[in-house]
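Exercise: predict the structure of this protein bound to arginine.
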Amino acid sequence: MNYFIKAIVSLLKEKTNLQEDEIEKLIEIPPDLKMGDYAFPCYNLSKTLKKPPNIIATELSKTLQATINENLLESPFKKGGLSGITEIKAIGPYLNFFVDKAIFSEMVLKKVSKERDRYGSGNIGLGKPVVIDYSSPNIAKHLAVHHLRSALIGNAIYNVYKTLGYQCVGINHLGDWGTQFGQLIAAYKKWGNENAHESYTVTDLNNLYVKFHQEAEKNPVLEDEAREWFKKLEAGDTEAKEFWQRFKDISLKEFHKIYDMLGIHFDAFIGESFYNTMVEDTIARIKGKGLAKVSEQALIVDLEPYNMPPCLLRKKDDATLYATRDIAAAEYRKKTHDFDKMIYVVGSEQKLHFKQVFKVLELMGDDWANHCVHVDFGLMKFKDGKMSTRKGKVVLLEDLLIDAVERIGKIIEEKNPSLENKDVVANEVGIGAVIFADLCTKRNKDVVFDWDEVLNFEGETGPYVQYTHARLCSILRKYGKPVTTDINYELLSEDEAIILIKNLGRFPSVILKAAELYEPSLICNYLIDVCGNLNRFYNAHRVLSDDEELTKSRILLVDATRQVIKNGINILGMHAPEQM
Ligand code: ARG
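Solution:
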């Protein structure tokens, strides 16, 4: 809570019967500066006081104004007999507060300057572990677009929580178990090239897989062979495990390449296979609680009373399932990390799966089941319909990223041919463009990916935010002197400056909200807003001029804005180049 909100809360607490947090939640920022700096709607008081809200607003404004005039409010800013709050006015059902702009600016800009890279961080998460399960692609298949979305959203949520002091554990729950591995081994034994396996790629594995399904249609015996192989694998057979490990190595090599390009990190790669030895115990306990039953030869948990289809634990051929492993994994993670919260970043199509898993955990008596959250997200679509490359084939993520970097490289070549480290910058901006395009849409909506829009330096894009940051860096380079907070804050009194400073002051609360809603898009929208505020300020007022005092003040504002944009960009998982 900033000082002014605290002051407003304490003023209102004394005169109403509302709780502090209730008041804080109700406080709004009026859309127009002229209406005040903060506003408090009186609707909620109307019920208890039995008066219309606008009458309450008028009455309260008078008593509260008297309080501040008498200087009764404790404040570090005794100025002109007032306490930083200069005026309290009723506007309709709202109580509007005006604050001293210079004091406000001083508070915000000093805080940013002091905290620098830490500005926006908090400590509400101290001592609280949070497990985040993200990306989690499947072995022997290409990293799909939804794994990319999950990686980017998960990484941003990880950074948001870390910024708030939580102890984050990022886990890549690889899909490295299941009957399909039996199919793959069977296919490899038949058609794989033993001598060439070193050079095998995920595409080769994928092809084997496709071939298996084509052949199995003609020759159903293949399915039996595959089942045998998976049984062997589950039983720990050496040969089966060797093949499986080989497929895993091939896939991880490709996944790591993409994660490295994106700058995405995991604390652990623990795939579904890891829980293979635990599922028996999990199933035994589910049975022990009387929750399991046999239906059509499969073992299930009946979830009909909760209006859900049954949760499948074991198929009739004894193979365990995705859900069984997720239940085992959740319990293992609770035991290992004693998390305060566990976040699964997985597409909306798995909503039911997670509802079922959480329900089974609850029925098993795991009282932390409601600390598990499924953070779902929509699809990524491409404007021209499919994900198609220049060659007209289905695009691979790696190609998509390379393409973004190449295109940005061309734009930089045109705009700033003498730029040093052009390749590094093109990389940071190209990848940043993809990250931002993915994150800036509310996560449960589908993202429509349009190259021209995504890469535009002037739209609501990553390159635009990065470019604004680089421009601020360039102003500071031109200034060439140290930035100081020892300035005359009255000089930052233009509307454009005040609007910008107010927005800079909002950054910590944006991070909090992004954590609460698992919504990185809030940070994207915030950054777009700040860049807009900055550009309006910059277009209306010269930063560097002969007036030394004024220049010093505006430079401080430029530096604080640069810092906030950089912190936001970094939390999203992007780089903030200083020149581009
Ligand atoms: N591998 C799964 C898929 O590609 C996603 C796994 C998500 N994480 C989890 N704990 N189930 O659909």
